[in-house]
Amino acid sequence: MRFHTSHCRESFIGLQEVLHGQLVDILKGLNREREGEWDYIGVGRDDGVKGGEYSPILYRPSVWTLQSWNTTWLSETPNKPSRGWDAACIRILTSGIFQHNHSKKKLVAMSTHLDHQGPKSRLEAAKIILGQVEEKTQQGHLPAFLAGDFNSQQDDDAYRMLTDGASPMQDLHTMVSPEKRYGHYYTFTGFGHDKPTKIDFLFVNGKTYPWLPNGYAVLENRFDDAVYSSDHRAVVADVAIP
Questions:
Q1: First and final CA of the chain: distance in angstroms?
Q2: What pLDDT, in 10s, does the model give residues 66-124?
Q3: Which of 26, 145, 179, 202 is deepest in the core (most CB within 10 A)?
Q4: At a CB cut-off of 8 Å and minimum separation 6, what does 33 contact?
Q5: Are 116 and 152 in contact (CB under 8 A)?
Q6: Which tens digits make up the pLDDT trace of 206-240?
């Protein structure tokens, strides 16, 4: 993460399945050369504090000023820790509104992880997320990006809900021309025993805000030491807001 963000001060990092101790370790590594260079927003999904998995968003306070943030539980009771519909696990959306310290432009950053078993919960979660996009972007007047493990392929109801019809969101992979894409197509590999699939996405509200996509990549998650850094591959995009 340090390498891939070292040449772009404006970088955001959206993570999923992060336990509190892992988050502490990640921040320690990112802040190794400069104390306080990186900070984060997010809570553990089980108790709204430190319990369970986070879907945090990491950013540089010297570049972005955090104006507000919140956690939304993807359930029938979105304001408190809860599991929704047919989900196997508690699921959350982390959202923040940031202002760029130099240009004063604002954007909405979101990170989420949809359920791996419950198709109804994924669809209903997508509806909640779109509601949060509309609210936080002031009906499309602010740029917004959404990063996450959606446990949904492109023919899944949740993906279609997020991209079809009246949704303001677009899949960045489809917005970037093939010659500006890099790396793999599939984003989930497992640890060597699963069929690769594409279930991790970066979305932007490209139907209501004129995002300028410059590149898209799916990075490697296993190198010469044969150790998997994750059962997912990192999805990276280079975009600008006019």
A1: 26
A2: 999 999 999 999 999 999 999 999 999 999 999 999 999 999 999 999 999 999 999 99
A3: 145
A4: none
A5: no
A6: 999 999 999 999 999 899 998 998 989 999 999 99
The whole-angstrom separation of Cα 93 and Cα 129 is 7
Tokens linked to 74: 């993807």
**Cα 110 from Cα 148, distance rounded (Å):** 8
Sign of CA dihedral 60, 63, 66, 72: negative
Which pair of structure tokens corresponds to residue 147? 């990063």
